[in-house]
Design goal:
There is one protein chain. The protein is mainly α. Helix content is 74%, strand content 5%. It has a domain at 21-85. The chain has helices at 3-109, 128-133, and strands at residues 139-142, 149-152. It has a two-stranded antiparallel ribbon. The chain crosses the membrane at residues 6-25. Residues 42-153 are annotated as: Disordered. This is Colicin import membrane protein. Keywords: Membrane, Transmembrane, Transmembrane helix.
Length: 153
């Protein structure tokens, strides 16, 4: 074989190897660029999801705080209602005690007015509860002859 043919074959082989190296290099650069772009997209998605997660966390904390506030308000209202109920019960006990004392005084002062069961009678001998239920009827008494009458209770 001629030398020029060997040189030509070597040059062609070197050119082919160079072209192969360039092609592989370009393919590698494209692959790296694709990977970088994918990494950028992943970072953006991570930022978006991170922000969304922070927002949801803040909303959850806000909702939990509102629930705790509502619970505290309900407990406060319940405590106030219980306090008011205790105060009313105490006032009722005081009124009951005062009524018992007044009944005892009335029994001492006028034993015939107070019966053993604690009920009283009015001046007509009826029980006070009956007197409240059926009031006296009105009577018409003449004041002057011929002028009509006046109503008296």
């Amino acid at each position: 074989m001629d030398t020029w043919l060997v040189v030509l074959l070597v040059v062609v082989a070197v050119v082919l190897l160079a072209l192969l190296v360039l092609a592989l290099s370009k393919r590698s650069r494209i692959s790296r660029a694709r990977k970088r772009e994918q990494a950028r997209e992943n970072l953006q998605e991570a930022q978006i999801r991170g922000a969304r997660a922070e927002k949801e966390q803040a909303l959850a904390e806000e909702q939990a705080a509102a629930a705790r506030r509502d619970l505290a308000e309900a407990q406060e209202r319940a405590a106030l209602a219980e306090k008011e109920a205790r105060e009313r019960s105490a006032r009722a006990d005081e009124d009951r005690t005062a009524a018992d004392q007044l009944r005892a005084r009335a029994q001492k002062a006028a034993p015939d007015l107070v019966h053993g069961n604690g009920t009283t009678t009015d001046h007509t001998g009826r029980h006070a509860a009956q007197a409240d239920a059926a009031p006296d009827r009105t009577q018409t008494l003449p004041t002057d002859p011929g002028t009509g009458g006046a109503t008296r209770r």
